[in-house]
């Protein structure tokens, strides 16, 4: 697992970000690195990823909160970089990688107080852009909180239903939309690419979709 942490740090440098501190706009950094982000709707998943030729492509569900989208983006980056096939540890590795990319282990160690309360995790969410639920899961996984405390926090979180406090909007991709616009719009770009214009339109339609 230490290797995953080191790789997450290396990716921060590759994205032109410092080893420490919150990543404010992961979407922008990833697109600048050449990853194509597209919206996916109706698949029942938060994210998918694949190499299309030599181009890394990540599909993201647009109608989710910003913290959830960021963690999914980090998760799918792990799959692109690390996984050629699925194994029993693939998802756990991607989750660990995403967590350390967004909130490096050393800083997590320093900032999680002894006997943390629910409000502590909400405050960390506001600073780091990672959901309180994900932070609580990580704290339990690292044995900062025991099973009893973890269950108690889960019960407290149930009052939020689907929406946590400290909500912030997702940052959607812009690269595909800009490329289509610069090449004459959807119809012209679709003709050039030899694909259906409606399908291409779906790959650039982020803003009109409702965020839950």
Task: Write structural notes for this entry.
It is a single chain. The protein is mainly alpha-helical. It has one domain (2-160). 52% of the residues lie in helices and 8% in strands. The protein is built from eleven helices and three strands; from the N terminus they run H-H-E-E-E-H-H-H-H-H-H-H-H-H. The protein has a three-stranded mixed beta sheet, with helices on one face. A hairpin with a 2-residue loop joins strand 2 (47-52) and strand 3. The longest helix is centred in the middle third of the chain and has 17 residues, at 66-82. The radius of gyration is 18 Å and the shape is globular. The two termini are 33 Å apart.
Topology:
Layout: H1 2-14, H2 26-32, E1 36-39, E2 47-52, E3 55-60, H3 66-82, H4 90-102, H5 105-111, H6 118-128, H7 132-141, H8 147-157, H9 175-182, H10 186-193, H11 197-202
Parallel strand pairs: 1-3
Antiparallel strand pairs: 2-3
Helix pairs in contact: 1-4, 3-4, 6-7, 7-8
The coarse overall form would be globular
Helix content: 40-55%
**Major sheet: order of its strands?**
1-3-2
Number-wise, the strands total 3
Total of domains? 1
Query: Beta-strand percentage?
Result: 5-15%
> Main beta sheet, described?
3 strands, mixed
Please give the radius of gyration in angstroms. 18 Å
Ends: how far apart? 33 Å
Are there runs of 5+ residues with pLDDT below 50, and where?
A: 208-212
The helix-strand sequence is HHEEEHHHHHHHHH
Mean pLDDT, all residues: 88
